Structure formats: C-alpha cells, structure tokens
C-alpha cells in the first residue's frame, strides 16, 4: 500500500513521529565547540569563549521536538550500527558471586536511513538473529522501525554493483516534488495506522505504487589466492581500523570482564573489535594468525564479498563507501573487489 | 528469552596437577556433549576463555588448562570448592558414532592432547565398538607430559606410545618428532585419524597419515583460534569463511585444507 505525502507536510509528519517515538535521522551537525568538548573548569565564566564549530558531515542523531527541519537525507560518515551494537555494551553485572542480568527499558525508535544503511541493518540481522539469537541486539531491533529515505549519493558510494534488496518497513520515494510512502512490513503497517489515527494536520491520499524490480545478485566466480593483490594491500594499509569503525556491517566484538575497585562487583561487557588490528587473531601464548596487514586486508575484503555470501546468501558490503572516505591512505574496497573477479 | 551469554555457576571438585603450568580441573557440570566440543570458562571480572572437554562423562567435566593468559592465570588460583562460570557446550566435536566398527588412530601433541582425552574416554567406555585403537602422543620434554597417570591403563587397552622432543634422563622412551611413530606403525587405509596439536605438528602428522593411504575426509583436525562469543557472532575465529567456534573446532581435512588466512 502506498500513500502520497505533500512535501510541505513532511515536517509535520516527522513531528508527529517525534511525539510518539525517538526519531533518529541524519542531521547536519552545527554545534558549539563547548558542546562537543565541554571544558573541565566551568567555574571560570569570564573566559566564556564559544567557538562555533560547523561541520558539514551529517551524523545520526535523535531529533528533538520542533527540530524536524534539521533532518537531511545525506550520507553520514558514521553508520547507524551503534544504535544496535553500542561500542561498549554491558551484558551482565555481578555482585559477590551472583550474576544480575542487565535489563534496559528499550525505547521505541524510528530511523530515517539511506537504502544502503537499511540493507546494512538487514545484513546484521542475518548474523545476530541467526540461531542462537543475540538477545541484546534483538531487543533493540524489535523496537526499531526503519524508514528508507530517498538516496543522495556521495562521491565514494557505489551500491549499483551490489544489488541491494527491499527490506525497509516504510519507504519515502521522491515523486514529482512530493513523497510517496510505501509500506513493506507489519511494523510499517502498525506505524502507519498510528499516523492515520493521530494525524489531524495533513492529508494522506492513497496512490498506486509499484516497487521497481531489482535484478537478483548473481555470485561471480572469484579467485581467492591473489598474492600480489594482498601484498599491495599490506604495503598500503596503516592498520588504523577506521574502515571497520565506519562500516555499517562490521559487527565484530570482543567479550571482556571488568572488575570494580571494591574487587567484589563488576561486569561482563563487549566492545567493538576490528579484524584490521593485530590483536584480533592473537591467541593465548601470543601467537598471531594474521600477522601481516595484507592477510588482514584479505580477511576484510573476503568477509565482505565472499564469506558472508556463502553463509547467509548476501554480500556483507552494502556499497555505502564509508570505508573509502575514512581510509587515510585511500584504499578503495571496490577496487579490491574488482581484482577478485 | 534464553540468553546464550549467561554462564552457569559450577563448583571445582578436584584439581589434578599435570605439569608446572598445567592443571586439570574437575567441575560439577552435568551436560551431554561430544568429545572435541568446548565450553567458555569465565572468571567474573577477568574474562572468558574457551576450553575443550578432557573427559567424557555425564557426571562431571574435566578441563585441562595451561596457565598462559589472564583468565587461565585466574583459574589456576582457584582451589577445590571455589566456583567457575561456564557456558556451553559449543561447536561440533568428533562424530564418534560414525567411527564405530573402525580402526582409529589419535595423534596429539603438547596441550593438544587435552581435547583428545574426551575421545579416549569415549572409546574406553565403548571399547567393543572399535577395532584397533592407536594412541600416539608427543611432548616437549619429560616435565611437560600430561595425563601421565593414565599411561599404564592406556598401554593395556590400546596401542599406546609417546615421544619426547628432548631426550629424557629418567624415562626410557622415544625421542624425536611424532611422525616417526606414525611411519613405524602398521596403519590400514580405512583408519579414522584424529589429530590435535600445534599447527606445525598437525601439518606434518597429516602428511604422514596421508602417505599411509588414509582418506582426507577420514582425518579430523582441530583448529586453534581466538574465540570470544562461541556462537558464531563475534567474528574473531573466522577462517576462510568458516567460524571455528560454530562450524568447528573439529574439521575433516578435506574441508580444513581449504581454510587459510
């Protein structure tokens, strides 16, 4: 089912969502320097220097009431994965040899995302909701609704080669200056029912919409043992792991223990991990299986394009090109993919 | 909902000293498992480590642990009556039922012997279901020998032999690499082989087993990797597109030979 939403009504549409949900969307970030780096001695008010810090890099943020106009459709530098897998997440707490499960009250969230990011969430679902399900991820995922936004391509993205699928709940489609809202799932239907019931400000008219047919991804034969390619990767790569930080589908983590200073309580938590770092494959005794940067690069490119597809049927890379933007030495993931073919 | 990250509290009921840096902990953990599978043992506040079963019993679990890192060091400080936290069992072990009515050879090196003990226990309990059983172990020197207390029993039940890398003054035994034992032995080509040990040992042991005419799919080897979650999510143990924790740690050689970093 599809509905037409006038462009002028878009802001009130977002405001309606804000009144019911936590709305997270790309926002052009213009904030004061002091807000980003609050200084430790706030008492010194005489030197109240406020440095305006404008960055044109959009960022996923919770949109506050009355700020619906801040929402943009541009590609963000950081992916929305940290709303589903936070960089540091407490799994369990313990106190005097007793374990307490951490129970959080999940917020109902609505996300505005690009097509590639929606697909990124879908790929993460494949691994995290595969048996046995990850309960911490599932809780956050169950309480989130994904709205796909019209795409504004960045200089580095290249999703045309990847063949993304329709896995959104709601989709906004640009149509002659207005938007068509297409509903794709039960979650989407529930959200839309709410909108129809609560809405008094704007009109939604039913329209006919046929989702475009996408070609099905056909796996290509790849040569995996290309020593020259990986040697070059190893020579280029600085092993900074920026690519895996910004990637929407890099979901690797390390589980670790933490002991409080009283030595009686603490927690078990997980942190983001990166296959591009030396410690990722270091076993007890100090042996590192992927000591060479080229070998780590090979793991990354293979994971994105070959291994994941073998296991779950889709390539893990969604073509957003964030890694290409973040890489300080300009390693282009699509170039290496091209060399695999 | 069932939380796979939630460990169970288990009591240490017996500690057996193996070597200077290795102890076997017997914990009261009753669970069905295959030999070759592993559990994630954690010490609260320190961390987790994957440890394989070195027993096969539904009454208790033996964990042979070498003191090499933070977690294993903390485990070594535990005494009888203390508690450990365990979640598992994880992975695919040795498909022992497939091996019934066949010759079997187990080759272990160093700490790699520990996961084999589970299979040895299984064979001991079902001795009439196996034909000829060979047990070849290799250790660095006479102070690094594990499960020495069982050697007499194994000598009676199986074709048991072991070798040391360095010559021993006290023990009369073979010296040299383990492939020497394999080469000397009379091995039929339809034998099942289980190999566990350091990567370099696995490489050469498999080579000499293949020269004996054993088929690649009948050789089972164990992968050693850093594991964190144990359920195929964290990505640490991925080799060649397979998760060692979920698809392994036991792989038949025809699959394992294609798994490279």
Fold blueprint:
The complex is a heterodimer of chains A (341) and B (261).
Chain A: E1 2-5, H1 10-20, E2 22-32, H2 33-36, E3 52-62, E4 88-95, E5 98-101, E6 109-113, H3 115-128, H4 135-142, E7 144-148, E8 170-175, E9 178-183, H5 186-198, E10 204-207, H6 227-236, H7 242-246, E11 253-259, E12 265-272, H8 293-312, H9 322-326, H10 333-340
Parallel strand pairs in A: 2-6, 6-7, 7-8
Antiparallel strand pairs in A: 1-9, 1-10, 2-3, 4-5, 4-12, 8-9, 11-12
Helix pairs in contact in A: 6-8
Chain B: E1 8-17, E2 22-27, E3 38-43, E4 47-52, E5 61-66, H1 70-76, E6 83-90, E7 104-109, H2 113-125, E8 133-139, H3 151-157, E9 159-164, E10 174-175, H4 179-184, E11 192-196, H5 199-211, E12 219-222, E13 238-239, E14 242-243, E15 250-252, H6 253-256
Parallel strand pairs in B: 7-8, 7-11, 8-9, 9-10, 11-12
Antiparallel strand pairs in B: 1-2, 1-6, 2-5, 3-4, 3-6, 12-15, 13-14
Question: What would you say this structure looks like, in words?
Answer:
- The complex is a heterodimer of chains A (341) and B (261).
- Chain A has one domain.
- Helix content of chain A is 29%, strand content 23%.
- In chain A, the strands form two sheets. In chain A, strands 3-2-6-7-8-9-1-10 form an eight-stranded mixed beta sheet.
- With 341 residues, chain A is of the alpha+beta class.
- Chain A has ten helices and twelve strands.
- Chain B folds into two domains: 8-90, Translation factors (Elongation Factor Tu (Ef-tu), domain 3, Beta Barrel); 96-222, Nucleotide-binding domain of ferredoxin-NADP reductase (FNR) module (Rossmann fold), CATH 3.40.50.80.
- Chain B has six helices and 15 strands.
- Chain B has a seven-stranded mixed beta sheet with strand order 10-9-8-7-11-12-15, with helices on both faces. In chain B, strands 4-3-6-1-2-5 form a six-stranded antiparallel beta sheet. In chain B, strands 13-14 form a two-stranded antiparallel ribbon.
- The longest helix of chain B has 13 residues, at 113-125.
- Chain B is globular and about 50 Å long.
């Amino acid at each position: 089912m599809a509905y037409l939403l006038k462009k002028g009504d878009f802001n009130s549409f977002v405001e309606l969502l804000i009144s019911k949900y936590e709305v997270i969307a790309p926002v052009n970030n213009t904030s004061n320097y002091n807000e980003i780096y609050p200084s430790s001695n706030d008492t010194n008010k005489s030197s109240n220097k406020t440095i305006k810090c404008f960055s044109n890099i959009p960022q996923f943020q919770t949109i506050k009431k009355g700020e619906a106009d801040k929402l943009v459709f541009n590609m963000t530098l950081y992916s929305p994965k940290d709303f589903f897998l936070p960089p540091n997440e407490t799994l369990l707490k313990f106190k005097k040899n007793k374990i307490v499960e951490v129970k959080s009250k999940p917020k109902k969230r609505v996300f505005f995302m690009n097509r590639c990011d929606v697909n990124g969430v879908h790929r993460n679902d494949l691994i995290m909701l595969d048996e046995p399900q990850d309960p911490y991820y599932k809780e956050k995922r169950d309480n989130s609704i994904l709205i796909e936004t019209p795409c504004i391509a960045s200089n580095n993205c290249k999703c045309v080669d990847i063949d993304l699928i329709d896995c959104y709940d709601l989709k906004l489609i640009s149509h002659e200056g207005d938007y068509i809202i297409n509903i794709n799932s039960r979650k989407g239907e529930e959200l839309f029912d709410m909108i129809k019931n609560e809405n008094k400000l704007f009109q939604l008219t039913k329209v006919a919409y046929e989702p475009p047919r996408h070609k099905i991804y056909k796996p290509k034969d790849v040569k995996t043992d290309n020593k020259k390619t990986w040697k070059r990767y190893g020579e280029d790569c600085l092993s900074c792991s920026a690519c895996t930080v910004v990637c929407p589908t890099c979901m690797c983590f390390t589980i670790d223990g933490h002991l409080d200073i009283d030595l009686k309580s603490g927690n078990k938590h997980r942190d983001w991990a990166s296959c591009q770092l030396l410690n990722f494959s270091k076993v007890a005794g100090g042996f590192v299986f992927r000591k060479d940067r080229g070998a780590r690069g090979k793991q990354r490119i293979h994971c994105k394009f070959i291994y994941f597809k073998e296991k779950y049927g889709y390539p893990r890379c969604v073509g957003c090109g964030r890694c290409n933007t973040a890489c300080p030495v300009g390693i282009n993931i699509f170039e290496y993919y091209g060399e695999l073919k | 909902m069932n939380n796979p990250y939630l460990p169970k509290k288990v009591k240490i009921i017996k500690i057996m000293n193996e070597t200077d840096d290795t102890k076997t902990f017997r914990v009261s953990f009753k669970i069905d498992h295959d030999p070759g599978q592993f559990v994630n043992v954690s010490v609260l506040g320190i961390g987790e480590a994957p440890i394989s079963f070195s027993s096969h019993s539904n009454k208790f679990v033996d964990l042979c642990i070498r003191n090499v890192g933070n977690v294993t060091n903390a485990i070594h400080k535990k005494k009888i009556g203390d508690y450990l936290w365990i979640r598992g069992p994880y992975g695919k072990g040795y498909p022992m039922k497939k091996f019934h009515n066949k010759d079997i050879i187990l080759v272990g090196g160093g700490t790699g012997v520990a996961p084999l003990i589970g299979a040895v226990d299984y064979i001991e309990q079902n001795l009439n279901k196996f034909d000829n059983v060979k047990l070849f172990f290799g250790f660095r020197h006479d102070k690094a020998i594990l499960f020495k207390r069982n050697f007499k029993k194994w000598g009676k039940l199986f074709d048991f032999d072991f070798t040391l890398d360095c010559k021993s003054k006290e023990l009369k035994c073979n010296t040299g690499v383990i492939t020497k034992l394999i080469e000397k032995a009379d091995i039929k080509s339809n034998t099942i082989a289980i190999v566990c040990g350091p990567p370099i040992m696995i490489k050469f042991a498999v080579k000499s087993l293949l020269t004996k005419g054993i088929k690649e799919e009948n050789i089972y080897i164990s992968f050693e990797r850093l594991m964190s979650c144990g359920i195929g999510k964290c990505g640490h143990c991925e080799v060649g597109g397979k998760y060692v924790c979920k698809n392994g740690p036991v792989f038949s050689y025809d699959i394992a030979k294609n798994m490279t970093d």
